[in-house]
From TrEMBL:
The keyword Flavoprotein does not apply. GO terms for molecular function: methyltransferase activity. CDD domains: SET_SMYD. It comes from Gossypium australe. This is Histone-lysine N-methyltransferase ATXR2-like protein. The keyword Transferase applies. PANTHER family: HISTONE-LYSINE N-METHYLTRANSFERASE ATXR2, SET DOMAIN-CONTAINING PROTEIN. It holds the Pfam family SET. Keywords: Methyltransferase, Transferase. One of its GO terms (biological process) is methylation.
Length: 157
């Protein structure tokens, strides 16, 4: 297995997605929900100084009227993150990959769940690690492998 190891800081890194497309999950895609970019755009217009705001609103108001309440719908999708794709799974992971409110589009954060020693492998969980050994193995079989993490080796009958 390839290994991604890292330093001991709690926020390990911010990773960027290279494309925003639907991928087979074995490639290690990452499900995302991001705030509506349309809403962000209207908030930006709202903050413009007076003459520019007036000008911009002449163009944006018809779109806002047409969209109605749907303008603030968040977007959901799956993205490919090259760094996260290098991270092996563990049923007792030491890190977690997710998008925080402050992460902008195309960015996600890997955060340590506990202190990680220099040189220690950084692992995330691909599944709900609260499941039983059999349930975890069944889900991971769908990813195409049998889990050999320390917890599974320990729980293996
Ligand atoms: C997203 S890749 C992870 C990076 C990969 N190890 C590499 O070198 O490119 C997922 C693959 O890594 C292997 N893998 C990841 N976690 C594993 C684990 N806990 N036990 C066994 N194999 C694992 C499996 O072959 C799996 O299909």
């Amino acid at each position: 297995m390839g290994i991604l190891s890292a330093c001991s800081s709690s926020i390990i890194c911010k990773v960027h997605c290279t494309c925003f497309t639907f991928l087979y999950r074995r490639v290690c895609a990452f499900d995302l929900v991001v705030a509506s970019p349309v809403e962000d755009y209207f908030l930006y217009i709202d903050d413009l100084p007076y003459p520019e705001k007036k000008e911009a609103e002449k163009i944006t108001q018809p779109y806002l009227d047409a969209l109605g309440e749907d303008y603030s719908n968040c977007c959901q999708g799956t993205a490919f993150f090259p760094l996260q794709s290098c991270m092996n799974h563990s049923c007792c992971p030491n890190a977690k990959a997710f998008k925080r409110e402050e992460d902008r589009d195309g960015q996600a954060t890997i955060i340590a769940l506990r202190p990680i020693c220099n040189g220690e492998e950084v692992t995330i969980s691909y599944i709900d690690e609260d499941l039983s050994f059999e349930e975890r193995q069944a889900l991971l079989a769908d990813y195409g492998f049998r889990c050999r993490c320390p917890r599974c080796l320990d729980e293996e009958p």
